[in-house]
Amino acid sequence: GTMPDQLKTAATTIATVAAVIQKNSNGKFSFEIVNPDDPKSSITRQTLIDTYKLQPIPVSFFSDQSYYLDLLLTINGQTQVLSVATDYSEASVRTAIESGLKRGTSGFLKVVGLWTPPPSPAAQFGGQPDISSWQAVQQQLGQDYTVTAVDLSGGQVPSNVDVMVVVAPQNMSDKERFAIDQYLMRGGAVIVAAGNFVIAPDQLGGLGLQPVQNGMQEMLDFYGVHIDPKLVMDPQNEPFPVQVSRVVGGLPVQEIRAVNFPFFADIRPAQMDRTSPIVSNLPFVTMNWVSPITLDATKNANRKTSVLLQSTARSWLRTSTDIQPNLQLYPDTGYLVEGQRQSFPLAVSVQGSFESFFKGKPSPFNTNQALPAQTNPSGVPEPTVAPVAAPNFSAIDQSPDTARLVVVGSAEFVDDTVLQLSARLTQDRSAANMQFIQNAVDWSVEDLDLLSIRSRGTITRVLNPMDQNEQSTWEVAIYAITLLALVGLGLVWYYRRRTEQPMVLTPPKEASSE
């Protein structure tokens, strides 16, 4: 009874669409309209708060009245909160219901929502294009899923999205963070590639790093996943391809030479959680310019967590963003070793119930707009402020246990520019990184059959990494074996010469004359 007049038609639209679906379902779908304020209703406002974490919507900013306008869909005993576009048109309502039915049913092609940073203002107006792009990950995920680029500026994830992939979150508004938060609160799956640094051109025109501004660090901290604003340096790493020039026969020749680059951590099976289906069959993964992750033990006490990737025990942390090596001062590593060497988590997965980051906070939609000025008794103009109403959907304070979150401490491991650099040495590196993100999506939508099928196609075989001492030992051993082999061949040749018997020459027969 407290529902605003402009929304009363929404309830009629929902009932109309649901009735059509019920009619065509052959008895497999049913719906009912519940009024929690009805004394005879088995579902009260308190039930909605306790069971589904649904808060009522205030009629206006200063009103003490509130109402509900939510859709709950139950399939096989599991209930999900449906997200409907704020226009509540028949098409929006039908899309929300059908998408929920597909999410709860096997055999449908899943939809991956992909968010990447929008182009910079300079690139939009014909200036220098951005260094970073993420076309490869979109194309790779498009092989098995329907990938759609999402705009979160309206504060809502589209209702047909089954898993949300957020790459390099930066310069985000509270409305965009609210959209991701509420999607997770509805029991959705979110994958975040959220390093604290992104590549940018330096003063000399080469590659450099700059810190991320206005990302998701504070919200992830609230969820119990902290990303340290430092860089992991690992002596077990993927070399960095550098173009060098040398003279051959008096002619200059350009070639690609690989140099030691601790910023590119080379993660092998020993540094993976092989019990997790995300990485159980991966031969290796490269984490580029990655930051360490810490799981809050208190906040994650009742959740299922996994450290998917971690660096080797000889890694250290770096605070400087200068990526140029100094081989004269540090011939072994190229960089100063700071602090204690140890292993650092680089990617984690968390499954369970999360509390909303916006619980108890002002809604990001309640912005203030100045109305025409009024004159007070003193004669001084005084503007009045009126609140802007929030969209017509409830804010959920807590998610169900089905919510899933995957956090990677790097966004550059799927950056097109970085993948192109790796491809100069081998294509296998970029393929492994793409498979990691695909496996994370499979796990998020619980499509483990597809994950196992893809893993069987992993035929890349790589050499085991070795430290400097092992490399020196093998190098000396190879030289020694080669030398011994040459000495052995020489002895065999000498023995054969000593034991060789001279050939007996038979004199030619004289020709007889007739």
Report on this model:
The chain has eleven helices and 25 strands. The chain is of the alpha+beta class. Strand 1 (57-58) and strand 2 form a beta hairpin.
Rg: 32 Å
Structural class: alpha+beta
Total strands:
25
The gross shape turns out to be: elongated
- Fraction of residues in β-strands: 15-25%
| Fraction of residues in H or I helices | 25-40%
Average of the residue pLDDT scores: 82
The strand order across the widest sheet is 6-5-7-8-25-20-18
Distance between the termini: 143 Å
Number of distinct helices: 11
Largest sheet: 7 strands, mixed
Low-confidence stretches: 368-378, 380-390, 455-459
Tags for this entry?
elongated; single chain; 7-stranded mixed β-sheet; alpha+beta; 11 helices; two-stranded antiparallel ribbon; about 525 residues
Quick description:
The protein is α+β, with helices and mostly antiparallel strands. The protein has helices at 8-23, 45-52, 90-103, 121-124, 135-141, 174-185, 217-223, 416-423, 428-444, 448-456, 468-499, and strands at residues 57-58, 66-67, 71-75, 78-82, 111-115, 146-149, 163-167, 189-193, 197-201, 207-211, 225-227, 231-233, 240-248, 251-259, 264-267, 285-288, 293-295, 304-310, 316-318, 345-351, 368-370, 374-375, 381-382, 385-387, 404-408. A seven-stranded mixed β-sheet has the order 6-5-7-8-25-20-18, sandwiched between helices. A two-stranded antiparallel ribbon has the order 1-2.
